[in-house]
Inverse folding.
């Protein structure tokens, strides 16, 4: 282990030694500050700090900010079971000339129980970003996908990418995707964002976004051209799930049905596609997420929903196995049909299913319903409903 004391050969780090007949070392020679520690020891210290103090520590200096956003920091926090998870519900009220990003949070203390209620986090004006451009604002949020990297939430729309910093409560624009996509799959793998599907281009591609350089690039061609697909990631694999085929006969026939219940697997490190999988029982994929080494897929069969779990850890004998999970216990007054929309989020050892809206206003249909599946106890429980003002929000889990 590296020494905590300054280098005695570095004149800038210590007080010069006082010479005498007997060499004595000044007390100041043993005095050091936390800022003089090497990165690995500083990370050891910072990884033990309570989550509530991290936003303030990120403002100390640029070095601390970079260390707090590094993968090494989050790996240490995870190893010590100190990662704090918070659900963020994000909703953009699209109005011209004024547009507002509304955010509410739900804390997951100790990964055991959900908080008692959602808390309004902030309302941010986005006029300076959209500049009254109705073409950019129209349909932006309904087609957008969310991705969280550390404390930052990336809101990726058709022509606009925004990043919301949950520590500083600020929102800034980032580079848009290489070409417009609608209803695409999105997931974070090794600190970068991968998107696929949702494009009518002749060749479907998988794009990678590097937050460090704020750049997009094409990494591979996809085996299928999907529309309305979802994304998840486990063990370095980007899963592109469900959706319909993009072609002239877009939504009809057996082939479209195969797309709706299929799952393509892209290995990011080897840059190769693994064998595609099919969700058992068919149906249309309406929600998906990753949690504790599994991919969870919610499928719809007209008025019935089913939840499936895919073993996604490749170094285990169970890799590739499907198992059916107890279906979500929706209250009797909730009518399930093909207009109901869901957001599925993995948070620690929990899978959170949020009903984020319906295409039509049906009496008795409650929006904002939150159900939580405990992957350890294998049971469902009811969580606090989304606030009324953001019932049609997108939901993402943020860890720090």
């Amino acid at each position: 282990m590296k020494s905590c004391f300054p280098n005695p050969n570095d004149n800038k780090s210590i007080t010069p030694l006082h010479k005498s007949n007997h060499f004595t070392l000044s007390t100041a020679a043993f005095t050091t500050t936390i800022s003089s520690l090497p990165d690995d020891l500083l990370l050891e210290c910072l990884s033990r700090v309570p989550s509530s103090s991290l936003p303030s520590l990120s403002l100390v200096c640029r070095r601390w900010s970079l260390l707090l956003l590094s993968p090494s920091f989050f790996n240490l926090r995870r190893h010590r079971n100190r990662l704090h998870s918070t659900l963020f519900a994000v909703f953009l009220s699209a109005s011209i000339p004024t547009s507002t990003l509304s955010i509410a949070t739900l804390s997951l203390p100790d990964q055991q129980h959900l908080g008692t209620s959602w808390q309004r986090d902030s309302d941010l004006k986005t006029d300076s970003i959209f500049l009254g451009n109705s073409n950019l604002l129209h349909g932006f949020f309904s087609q957008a996908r969310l991705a969280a990297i550390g404390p930052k939430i990336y809101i990726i729309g058709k022509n606009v990418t925004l990043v919301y910093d949950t520590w500083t409560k600020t929102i800034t624009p980032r580079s848009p995707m290489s070409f417009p996509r609608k209803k695409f799959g999105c997931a974070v793998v090794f600190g970068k964002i991968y998107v696929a599907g949702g494009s009518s281009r002749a060749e479907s591609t998988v794009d990678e976004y590097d937050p460090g350089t704020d750049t997009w690039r094409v990494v591979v061609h996809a085996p299928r051209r999907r529309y309305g697909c979802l994304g998840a990631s486990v063990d370095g694999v980007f899963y592109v799930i469900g959706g319909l085929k993009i072609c002239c006969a877009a939504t009809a026939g057996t082939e479209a049905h195969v797309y709706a219940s299929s799952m393509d697997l892209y290995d990011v490190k080897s840059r190769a596609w693994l064998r595609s999988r099919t969700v058992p029982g068919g149906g249309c994929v309406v929600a998906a997420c990753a949690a504790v080494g599994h991919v969870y897929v919610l499928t719809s069969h007209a008025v019935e929903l089913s939840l499936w779990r895919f073993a996604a850890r490749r170094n285990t004998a169970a890799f590739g196995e499907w198992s059916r999970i107890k279906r979500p216990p929706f209250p009797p007054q909730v009518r399930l049909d093909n207009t109901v929309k869901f957001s599925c989020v993995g948070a620690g050892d929990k899978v959170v299913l949020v009903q984020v809206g319906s295409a039509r206003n049906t009496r008795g249909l409650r929006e904002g319903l939150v159900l939580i599946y405990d992957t350890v106890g294998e049971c469902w429980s009811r969580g606090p409903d989304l606030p009324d003002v953001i019932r049609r929000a997108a939901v993402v889990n943020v860890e720090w």
